[in-house]
Delta 8-(E)-sphingolipid desaturase (Clathrospora elynae), 567 residues
Amino acid sequence: MSTRHRTVSPEEIKRLVAEGEPVVIFEGYVLHLGEWINTHPGGRLAILHMVGRDATDEINIYHTNKAILMMTQHRFGRVELPWTNLEPPIRSPDYYINLAERKRLAALGDNEKSRRGRSVDLGSAAAIIGKKLIGKEACVYRASSRSMNDPEKLPLIETEIETPTISAAELKTRNREQYAIEQEEREIEEGIRDNPSLDIETQKAIITDYRALHQQFKDEGLYQCRYSEYGKESIRYGLLFAAFGAFLYYKWYITSSIFLGLFWQQIMFTAHDAGHRGITGNFVADTLIGAFIADFCCGLSIGWWKSSHNVHHLVTNMPEHDPDIQNIPMFSITPTYIKSVLSSFYNFTFPWDGACDVMVPYQKYLYYPIMALARFNLYFLGWLHLCSPRAQQLGAAWWTRHVELVFMICYWYLFGYLLVWCTLPTWQIRVGFVLMSHLVTMVLHVQITLSHWGMPTSDLGPTESFPARQMRTTMDVDCPAWMDWFHGGLQFQAVHHLFPRVPRHNLRRGQELVRAFSEKTGIKYHCYGFVDGNKVVLSRLEQISQMVRVMVDCQKHMAATGESGLH
């Protein structure tokens, strides 16, 4: 029997996953992507978050037939369906610790490794030690109980049992974490109550309907790009850029900066399409289009955006894993951050500290001011990405980093040097021009955050299907068709998260199909007007702020009275 068709047991998959092997289930086959993970244009993390899981739907909607054919070359067996998803190791808080240990042992010689024995998983070791300690305490308790009942076995000298001393800071941390856990559990209960059942049969039916919907998208040609629409888009972009140049020529500098900001805001919609290969469908062509728009025209790294956005689409609104919502200490849309969490994307612990206690209670009022200046942060993140090893770990797409570096340098030469430094006459005008052009793009950042920041972040477990989670954590913006140019497709984020490669000019038709899918499956389709959507986000920010206020007030009360525990 061919190794590709042999049946692989769940125990063997668990063993491979435990050993750090990137194995993924796709259409009943086991894919071992160890030879391909470092050449995956979407980055390593996108695969690591699917390890041990049935990633059939994710693979089908994110990849072209050519890419899928490449992946299926790595099949080495079949599994019995339905598959029970495992928790990917990267979602464990100890993942990076264990990874560092594996790398260290791999660097040792065979003799050294055999001398030291098998590597021990730190989490398992902690559990073993904990069990031994608990067992020892139980033995002491049983022994002391017997002694109390038998006077002859009482100790000759009374000994005082020492209890470990807990510092005020440690007690504060424990109480804070317990409070966060209670809030998380409450949100999980709400999620289970308000959504379709998580039992296997219900979720299987949802997946079946979702795959039928995907086929309907294909049959109606919704994956086909309407290039005439981009012709209209180009006219609008050209008019905005011409207005910027004309007002600059007549020295209406601030007015000129407004049109430059509008140009940036509008043209980035096309960069978003290109990042998802929604224009030509060709990786090279769409990457160059995206890099030209984002890096050359706007100074923003399309590579950084894709590296974080690919992960965002797979683990939407998961606090520990979705980089798009990891904005501590300025914003928190989930009680999870109160515990302090390790980001699997950044390999960095976001601590909950005094700055969070001060800023988060006022985040509702900081939302719009920070969104107005968010573009400056994107510059920083873009350069940080291009200078990091992650930008070089793209296998066959290695050349994209060099293209981005050239385009980004060109942007800063044209905008920073020739325009701001050489053309604008005074420092006051330079500062005003830069600020105004960047403030105008605030609407884009509001549009980006609107679709997720007001939505749940709770994890309902491994049985929740891909479409169910995407619709639960994503909001659409309701608007008339004539306003589609203003929102640029970002108003259809729920539809987009279900079918990310569909060109945005086809998303309005896709919305009609998704509404019918929602009615059939019972999954709620969240769709609000732009103003109401903003209210939803602000309400969520205020909800978390209120949680933090309660926690801080309790901690102050505990410090003043000496009581322990949140009430």
Observations:
- The chain has 24 helices and seven strands.
- Confidence is low (pLDDT under 50) at residues 110-161.
- The beta strands are 23-26, 29-32, 75-78, 341-343, 348-350, 476-478, 527-529.
- The CA atoms of residues 308 and 323 lie 6 Å apart.
